[in-house]
Amino acid sequence: MKLGPTLLGVLLLVVAAVYLLVPADQLPGFFPGHETGLVRIRTKHGIASGVAGVVLLAAGVWMGRR
Prior knowledge:
66 residues, 2 helices
């Protein structure tokens, strides 16, 4: 039961790193926020996915303690 939130949390932390390190024109096409010719990074997308990843990791740890 705790494996699902933990894996999703790790995946969202990887997505957050991609958003914070890669400019918008180099993001994969299936990522929201991909725009051709835009060279700034998508900070809000990165922060949102990072926070969601941390929350899901905490939920996985909390579920594992029961």
